[in-house]
Specification:
- The complex is a heterotrimer of chains A (290), B (201) and C (478).
- By secondary structure, chain A is α+β, with helices and mostly antiparallel strands.
- Chain A has 2 domains: 136 residues, Cytochrome Bc1 Complex, Chain D, domain 2 (Orthogonal Bundle); 84 residues, Ribosomal Protein L30, Chain: A.
- Helices cover 36% and strands 13% of the residues of chain A.
- In chain A, the strands form 3 sheets. Chain A has a 3-stranded antiparallel β-sheet. Chain A has a two-stranded antiparallel sheet with strand order 1-2. Chain A has a two-stranded antiparallel ribbon with strand order 6-7.
- Chain A is flat, with a radius of gyration of 26 Å.
- Chain B has 201 residues and is mainly alpha-helical.
- Chain B has 2 domains: 46 residues; 128 residues, Cytochrome Bc1 Complex, Chain D, domain 2 (Orthogonal Bundle), CATH 1.10.760.
- Chain B is built from 9 helices and 2 strands.
- A two-stranded antiparallel sheet of chain B has the order 1-2.
- The termini of chain B are far apart.
- Chain C is mostly helical and 478 residues long.
- The chains are: A alpha+beta (290), B mainly alpha (201), C mainly alpha (478).
- At the B-C interface, helix 1 of B face helix 1, helix 7, helix 8 and helix 9 of C.
């Protein structure tokens, strides 16, 4: 390149192109997003946070919780499960042989083998997952076949992936989940567990407060620092405060003293309780457990 | 090492120079090949810029194929269609009703009652006389708007209104409507509030 | 210093014109490097002793980690790079620095901005976006300071006596445009009252982080390396065409990387980033080819000097680029995302690549700018070994721990606490690496401060001489 102008133009075009692609285009496509509805209902999703939970997001931001925690669930696939919910008139021991007899066609050999494998050592407990496949048509065809002979079964759509298997969510996080977050705290590093659905896993505010005050009281070998400065240790007044933390002996306050959360701690706990995203959406469908 | 000479040519001033040569062809060709492969990858994985397609779904069609179709969704979709055609003009597409025309269905205790027997009789036979809905008194005349609907469609409509707009109540099956119809007296008069209260829920 | 009629062409005069701006930029940069490394070390220690300095909300890990990273990037890498850029532009233009006071003002503004930013993060005012945590006031100051330096650099370029352009010009000139655009966009979208709703925020955040930490550092690092490597080796830069391809491909493909594979965004975004990442292998290859052809077989012994620093820097760039690109492949990112692998790659980019190249460049140019040898030449050699050992000890265990952590997290039967515990022994070693890098940085700072003090004493002496003998015509060294 022989002139300064040429360099400038090249850099301008290159950066301009990527600006259009990754700043302008997403802003146009996703910036005007509105609430959507939960799959198979008319309920809106997501709902705005209120009160302490909104302030809690700012506490989360100010203490840099996103340095160790993520708020996004990933999914690597989706599968249809055929679940057995009722045996009809048969006994559990007979069921395996019976199921084999249903699918005699050679192309369904894989199915009978799969049934046999899943029923191996089955103790008769219901519901029981008989067959998992990514082929939705096959799953519903199997379910119809079983229903036709009086067996009660259902098909369920489930999300698959290590985050899902770990119980961190029932489906992956999608754009609309973050509609009302200001700022969005996705996080990039999991030194601590994912928090996208922590409000579902730990619906108890007191447990969150205990964990913030003394992480080791909840997780023995936790590397999370304690946030003692969000709490106040004070002398018990006329009666113990209703907010006082209830900690195991080695973490509790000295006798005559109680540990009371400051407003920031309560806001943070309220925010954590509001982190729930286990609803099916069009872009991330699954069959919710009733 | 800095040069003490006063000359301004680059090389004699001790500044680096570069060999003149052109870009080798092999790297251009490799770039083009990678572009091509990238294009194929894009076609397979990007969902073609659709805002609803997220990995692992590879396209909008795939995502649509995984949407639940049978059972609830179909019933509600059908119910919504029939509702908007038959009931929506008076009760409103949002179920809020219109003063002087029709009471609201959203939040109505008649709609969300545990049993659907009383509710089902209203579109099947019509309703006359005063009735209290969600704390307000209504005194209108409703024709038997659901009498002409087949069992499955009326069941779908009732399921739809029982699970929309914040209402959370169970669905109604076509067989249930069939049974109710078979027990209905002939020469139907519209029901009244008192008649409804005499029925089982 | 020789008084000379043709001053503008004399390299001594060129270098002298850069004295104050470079001292201002490099001095502050050295301070921020040490501050950033100390904060990072405390953060690293907290993984083994979570209660270390635990009572102070200012030193909680969530504030230390971003403050440390930003101090190294904004406090050290950017001003040091701008200083070297100004010197390279002046030398290549065969002209003194244009608008010489402007970079001095800008340097002080910049360091003030970094100070406000760091204090802002530690006091809880972080914006919440990675690499963009500085509060609004600091961001505005940094932006203004950069524009001032860019103005001086552009003027130096515009008034050049030597018209032929050299490959370093492309990289460095593009860098002058790149930063203001990405920084202003990111701050206007994310750090203002009109933030876009929802997931658009992290998308812009990822675009910004990629364009700053990967592309911008690559532009300045490679631009600086392509200047010094041939100069020290006494050869010409091999293959102009290859370098041109490397430059164009880096800016056109590299700017589209950055969206992580598992992100909660429509599929087209991570797919485009993946494709761009694979394409970015090509400019990496070009830059490697140019470096190898220029330096290998040259009659330069490494000798712990600048040449070593810069060559290690380019090798680290290639390594860090490969790590970055591999993390963009879906099958690897499934394991590596959200683990220590990401920070390992970032630390390699910052300390292995950017810092090494900048150290080499500064050790090479500062003696000629100050017209004095390095006060502690042994420190420079020691710095190289501490720095190299530090980078290896920091990055390699961290990367391995990321892989271990990722594999364990991928197996849902392994409890999270166990996966986390498996990383701790690697973090021990990484903390040692951080310590070594800190020692190297202190050695570097010692040289810079000693030179600054020498210069100040020199100025003071000249002033005193001038005051004492008013009848003599003495030129005040500025």
């Amino acid at each position: 390149m022989k002139t300064g102008i040429a360099i400038f133009v090249a850099a301008f075009v290159a950066l301009g192109a990527s600006w259009c692609g990754f700043v302008l285009a997403p802003a146009l496509q996703l910036g005007g997003a509105k609430q959507t509805v939960i799959l198979q209902t008319t309920d809106n999703w997501p709902l705005q946070r209120t009160g302490d939970a909104t302030l809690g997001l700012q506490v989360y931001r100010a203490y840099g919780c996103a340095a160790c925690h993520t708020e996004q669930v990933r999914q690597t696939g989706v599968a249809s499960e055929v679940n057995l919910t009722g045996l009809g008139n048969r006994k559990a021991e007979d069921f395996s042989a019976f199921a084999k007899s249903l699918f005699v066609l050679p192309e369904l050999a894989g199915v009978t083998n799969a049934f046999a494998a899943s029923l191996n050592g089955w103790n008769g407990e219901l519901p029981k997952t008989l067959f998992t496949t990514t082929d939705v048509e096959l799953a519903s065809a199997l379910a119809e076949r079983l229903k036709a002979v009086g067996v009660k079964c259902e098909t369920r759509l489930v999300a698959t992936g290590s985050d899902i298997a770990r119980g961190w969510g029932s489906r992956q996080s999608v754009a609309v989940d973050y509609l009302y977050d200001q700022p969005v705290q996705l996080g990039s590093m999991r030194a601590g567990p994912d928090l996208a659905n922590i409000g579902v896993r730990v619906p108890d505010a007191n447990l969150h407060l205990n964990h913030l005050y003394a992480p080791k009281s909840v997780t023995p070998n936790s590397t999370m620092p304690s946030f003692k400065f969000l709490f106040e240790v004070r002398k018990i007044g006329a009666a113990p405060s209703a907010d006082a933390l209830n900690l195991p002996k080695e973490f509790a306050a000295a006798p005559g003293f109680e540990i009371v959360p400051k407003p920031e701690a309560k806001q943070l706990a309220a925010y954590l309780l509001s982190l729930k995203a286990n609803v099916p959406l069009y872009e991330a469908p699954f069959t919710p457990v009733k | 090492m800095s040069d003490e000479k006063k000359s301004c040519s680059v090389s004699s001033a001790g500044e680096p120079v570069s060999e003149r040569s052109t870009t080798p062809m092999w790297i251009i060709v490799t770039t083009l090949i990678l572009f091509f492969i990238g294009g194929i990858y894009f076609d397979r994985h990007s969902g073609w810029f659709d805002a609803k397609v997220y990995a692992p779904y590879s396209s909008a069609e795939t995502l649509e194929a995984y949407q639940p179709k049978s059972g609830e969704a179909a019933l509600l979709a059908r119910g919504k269609k029939n509702y908007e055609a038959v009931c929506g003009t008076c009760h409103g597409p949002d179920g809020l009703g219109k003063p002087g025309q029709a009471p609201p269905l959203a939040g109505s205790e008649w709609v969300t009652a545990k049993g659907f027997n009383r509710l089902a009789h209203i579109p099947l036979m019509g309703l006359a006389g005063s009735i209290s809905v969600a704390g307000k008194d209504w005194n209108m005349n409703m024709a038997a708007m659901g009498a002409a609907l087949p069992d499955e469609d009326l069941a779908a409509v009732l399921s739809y209104i029982r699970s929309s707009w914040g209402n959370k109540a169970s669905s109604v099956a076509g067989d249930d409507i069939k049974q109710i119809r078979s027990k209905m007296p002939a020469g139907a008069q519209p029901v009244t509030h008192d008649m409804l209260m005499q029925m089982p829920e | 210093m020789n008084p000379n009629e043709n001053k503008s062409c004399c390299t001594n005069a060129i270098d002298a014109s850069l004295r104050v701006p470079l001292l201002a930029l490099f001095g502050g940069a050295a301070v921020w490097l040490v501050v950033g490394l100390v904060l990072g070390l405390i953060a690293g220690i907290k993984f083994h002793a979570p209660e270390f300095l635990g009572g102070c909300p200012l030193l909680t890990y969530g504030r230390l980690a971003p403050a440390a990273n930003d101090a190294v990037l904004y406090g050290f890498c950017i001003p040091a790079a701008l200083g070297v850029l100004l010197w390279i532009f002046a030398r290549l233009s065969q002209n003194q620095l244009a608008l010489p006071l402007v970079p001095v003002v800008a340097a002080n503004l910049w360091h003030l901005g970094v100070f406000i930013g760091t204090a802002g993060i530690l006091l809880g005012g972080s914006s919440g976006h990675t690499w963009l945590e500085y509060p609004r006031a600091a961001a505005v100051i940094l932006f203004a300071a950069f524009l001032l330096i860019a103005a001086s650099a552009a003027a130096t370029f515009g008034w050049r006596r030597e018209q032929t352009l050299y490959p370093s010009h492309w990289f460095l000139f593009a860098a002058l445009l790149w930063f203001p655009w990405i920084y202003s966009t990111a701050n206007l979208f994310l750090n203002s009252n009109q933030s876009p709703r929802g997931v658009v925020q992290p998308i812009i955040g990822w675009w910004f982080a990629n364009n700053l930490v990967f592309v911008w550092l690559a532009l300045v690092g490679v631009g600086i390396a392509f200047y010094f490597l041939p100069k020290i080796a006494g050869r010409s830069l091999a293959s102009y065409g290859q370098a041109l391809f490397g430059f164009l491909a880096l800016i056109f493909f590299g700017s589209w990387c950055g969206i992580p594979q598992g992100a909660p965004v429509p599929a087209w975004l991570p797919t485009v980033s993946s494709i761009a990442a694979v394409l970015t292998l090509l400019p990496l290859l070009s830059i490697l080819i140019v470096t190898v052809k220029t330096t290998f077989g040259a009659n330069v012994s490494c000798n712990d000097g600048s040449f070593c620093f810069i060559r290690i820097g380019i090798m680290s760039f290639i390594a860090s680029g490969i790590l970055y690109i591999s993390a963009a492949c879906p099958q690897y990112s499934r394991i590596l995302e959200f683990t220590w692998f990401g920070p390992a790659q970032t630390q390699l980019q910052l300390f292995g690549f950017a810092a090494m190249i900048l150290f080499g460049a500064i050790y090479e140019l500062l003696p000629s700018v100050m017209d004095k040898p390095l006060p502690f030449p042994k420190f420079a050699k020691l710095h190289f070994w501490f720095g190299l050992a530090g980078v290896v000890l920091l990055v390699v265990p961290l990367a391995i721990s990321g892989v271990v952590q990722g594999e364990k997290l991928a197996d849902a039967h392994i409890a999270f606490a166990d996966a986390n515990a498996a990383t701790l022994k690697f973090l021990h070693i990484s903390a040692t690496g951080q310590l070594f890098i800190l020692i190297g940085a202190l050695l570097f700072a010692a040289n810079i401060f000693a030179m600054t003090i020498q210069w100040k004493l020199g100025v003071a002496k000249t002033v005193i001489t001038y005051i004492k003998s008013p009848l003599e015509t003495a030129e005040v060294k500025s």
